[in-house]
Amino acid sequence: MSDPIILAIDTATEACSVAVNGVAECQVAANAHSQILLPMISRVLQRAGLVLTDLDAIACGVGPGGFTGVRIGVSTAQALAMARGLPVYPVSSLQALAAATVQPSVLTALDARKDEVYAAVYVQDERTGLPVLQDEERVCPPGAVAWPQAGIFWGLGSAWPLYHSEWQQDNVLGWTEDAYPQADAVLRLALARHLGGDEGCRPDQLEPHYIRPFLPQDQQK
Questions:
Q1: Which fold has domain 6-93+180-205?
Q2: Contact at 8 Å (CB) between 184 and 17?
Q3: I need a labelling partner for 111 at 20 to 30 A (CA). Which of 44, 61, 121, 156 fits?
């Protein structure tokens, strides 16, 4: 049996990305996701030689990330899935960030605004090659992040250029500044779950993964 055709999107950060069947597109354009996402989906499907009726599922990066960006991604995934009666695979955007590197052990950290960060530790599973969450994803001030003291790690995400001086440790070899969660990683994670027997969820069950409570005045910058 051939693999399912899954359309994946992630809009949780400044990067807007779409992937399907080995074709992917990404554009860093803060505050423009609502304008560029649907045309990007159309282009990627066209390049892959597919149409919406060919899809078997939708995968979506659900955050944590910018409130506006996460909402755009989730609502778009819901609309597409509901229109076709497709299952949806919610994927943590921090896990997608960790899956986008060859580094086996990573400290993912995204700028959460308000002098806070979204942070999590991921270590690659030796059997599957996929990043596995250690402990939990959390939102907190950068000074409250307690990175592991044992092991060798690499830093990823938009918070590292802002707070790397607070996170200097002998077991952190370095960090990558321009790293974003990407739809091709969301797709790979969703496909692995499908092959493991996960059938996804209904579109109406798809929810943003904000970590912290959403306040009406919160806006993605």
A1: Nucleotidyltransferase; domain 5 (3.30.420)
A2: yes
A3: 44
